[in-house]
């Protein structure tokens, strides 16, 4: 088909062509002859290329078939979950390597009893997990949920029953450094209780048994927080017929902390724990009041005033208790006397002072009167009679 067009305007990049019915067509200037200008007439031949059209359609169909075979025929598979091992308080779950086909992985999540238990890290590399802190003799339900760019896929739900305290089949032991004879004895004890022995530390290893803490296996057990116990722990489980605590069976543990069970006999109570003696600290005695301390620390009453040589001998031989009572009676009597008799009381007190002060100048100013002799033990009865004659 031949078409004649008139060049209306020629620009650097686009030329405007006019049809016979005065329609405008923008045409690339690079496709036009180089010597044209405004008003020139150009002929353009237009035809359909069937060969090129067929080859292009075949190429597009091949591309679609390749995309379908790569991304349309295979889809991600649901995870296959199973229980690897179960103990009294833990469960080890494992699954086959996940198949996401050509889809993009989003996440792999574990559910316990319908609730999210956690997301599996590195799901393309990790194919097992361990759950601890479960209840004894309890049934749990687990399933995996795989999320991809091609959709969400869930595994079948499995039920796992934790073991009873008397079920020792879930114990998995990895032996470490110990004497050969002890290892043979350990092997027999493990077989008798129904437990398992594995040579390497795995995710389902429940206890690491050894007598010396060294070696790569021991380091891996410590790194994975696996209890490291002595062979006596197996003996204790066999003796009691039940799983016993590991606190007293660690390598450096005190043997007195080990549990002594009832020997697995039915109808008896739980095992008793033997602990080391405890030292109790007695609290300090509270301090007594200050007044009471002063009374306790006070000095004894002063000795009686000095007397003649004969009186001192009698005082030394006999206790001064009667004289003390007499002085107390004098004090009570003096408190009841009128003020006019104060001079007489002062004179009585002066008589009790030592004899070397009787001749002082202060005594000369006071009225003199005859002073009675100092009282003795024999005169106590006379003194009492004198105090009774005082008028109150």
UniProtKB/TrEMBL annotation:
MF (Gene Ontology): protein dimerization activity
Database matches in Pfam families: CHS5_N (PF16892), fn3_2 (PF16893), PTCB-BRCT (PF12738)
GO BP terms: conjugation with cellular fusion; Golgi to plasma membrane transport
SUPFAM superfamilies: BRCT domain, Fibronectin type III
Coiled coil: none
Biased composition (Acidic residues): 342-354
Biased composition (Basic and acidic residues): 306-315, 324-337, 383-392
UniProt domain Fibronectin type-III: residue ranges: 75-169
Biased composition range(s): Low complexity: 270-282
Region (Disordered): 257-392
Protein name (Swiss-Prot/TrEMBL): Chitin biosynthesis protein CHS5
């Amino acid at each position: 088909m031949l078409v004649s067009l008139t060049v209306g305007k020629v620009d650097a990049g686009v030329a405007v062509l006019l049809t016979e019915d005065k329609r405008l067509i923008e045409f690339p200037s690079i496709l036009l002859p180089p010597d044209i200008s405004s008003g020139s007439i150009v002929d353009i031949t237009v035809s359909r290329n069937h060969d090129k059209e067929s080859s292009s359609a075949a190429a597009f169909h091949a591309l679609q078939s390749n995309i379908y075979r790569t991304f349309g025929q295979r889809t991600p598979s649901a995870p296959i979950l199973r229980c690897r091992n179960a103990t009294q308080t833990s469960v080890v779950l494992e699954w086959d390597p996940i198949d996401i086909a050509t889809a993009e992985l989003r996440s792999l999540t574990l559910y316990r009893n319908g609730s999210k238990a956690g997301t599996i890290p590195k799901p393309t590399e990790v194919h097992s997990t361990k759950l601890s802190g479960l209840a004894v003799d309890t049934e749990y339900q687990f399933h995996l949920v795989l999320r991809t760019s091609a959709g969400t896929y869930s595994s079948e739900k499995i039920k796992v029953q934790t073991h009873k305290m008397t079920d020792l089949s879930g114990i998995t032991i990895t032996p470490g450094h110990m004497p050969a004879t002890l290892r043979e004895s350990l092997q027999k004890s493990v077989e008798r209780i129904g437990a398992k022995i594995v040579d390497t530390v795995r995710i389902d290893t429940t206890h690491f048994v050894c007598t010396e803490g060294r070696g790569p296996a021991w380091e891996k057990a410590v790194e994975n927080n696996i209890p490291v116990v002595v062979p006596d722990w197996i003996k204790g489980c066999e003796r009691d017929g039940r799983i016993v605590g590991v606190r007293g069976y660690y390598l450096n543990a005190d043997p007195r902390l080990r549990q002594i069970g009832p020997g697995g006999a039915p109808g008896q109570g739980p095992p008793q724990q033997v602990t080391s003696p405890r030292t109790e600290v007695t609290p300090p005695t509270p301090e007594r009041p200050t007044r009471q301390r002063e009374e306790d620390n006070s000095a004894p009453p002063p000795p009686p005033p000095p007397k003649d040589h004969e009186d001192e001998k009698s005082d030394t031989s006999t206790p001064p208790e009667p004289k003390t009572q007499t002085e107390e009676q004098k004090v009570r009597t003096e408190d009841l006397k009128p003020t006019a008799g104060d001079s007489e009381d002062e004179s009585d007190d002066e008589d009790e002072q030592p004899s070397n002060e009787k001749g002082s100048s202060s005594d000369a100013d006071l009225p003199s009167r005859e002073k009675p002799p100092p009282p003795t033990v024999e005169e106590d009865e006379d003194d009492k009679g004198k105090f009774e004659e005082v008028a109150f």
